[in-house]
Amino acid sequence: MLTRRSLFRTATVGALSLTSIAGVAEAKVKNPLPAAKVSEKRRVLMQSSSRYHNSGYLDFCDEQYERLYGAEKHEILFIPYARVSSSYDGYEKQVQDAFKRYGHKIVSIHRFDNPVEAVKKAEAIAVGGGNTWALTTRMYEAGIIDLIRDRVNAGMPYVGWSAGGNVACPTLRTTNDMPIAEPPSFNTFGFCPFQTNPHFISGGTAGLNNETREDRLEEFLAYNRDEEVIGLPEGTALFITGEFNCEVLGPKDAEPLYWFRQPEKKFGKMKLERIALGTKFDVRNVVPGGKL
Fold first, then answer.
1. Is 162 a catalytic residue?
2. What is the pLDDT of residue 266?
């Protein structure tokens, strides 16, 4: 695994092989996830947010959870590691209360002496929102990243909202959060082969000269010429089944998704396509030049 320190060393060594225009490098060293065997029974729900407009906590998710769980009722292992400024006990209670309406039981992983054994015995996994850097770091420290990946790819249901949805991507690089912790690797679960940006909102704040989300994602595309990003407005979700099938879910009045695409020319403006609710597509097509 590459840490940021080793990435800096590797990048320095590899700098001679980088192709650059006007002194700007356009490639970087990557440490991709290994190929994984994926069951046709795999079900992954990547939610942008825990609230939608004026909704209560996760109370707009009836249709999304019905799609994920069907008629089955589970004891769901909850991963609260993204919570930083308040207790895991309180976070567990909040999620327990939210999931009562759906008929599922929530038990947090912090209740178990051995987190690895807890994941091995879990019926389903839910990963909550908060700080993605803290979440990823703590999952690596608990030794559960690879195990969760394997169990979900084998068919155990997975839901993650906000940070928990972000870590379903190959890496955490498109999170909105401050890097308050340093994980040993940026690699996360990789249930989809592309990056998403949760809580996506277009444009800046009136009267402030701050970067917009579009500005940040344009930098991501300029530095990662082989990648594209899907922005998820609040309330929306991606529902992945099997290895390649994906469907856009969300409340009927939710915004279409934002598909940020590579520019026609180097250093040109990135392109934007919108993806409507209900769209079904092959996840392999979210690449430069791809079509849904």
1. yes
2. 86
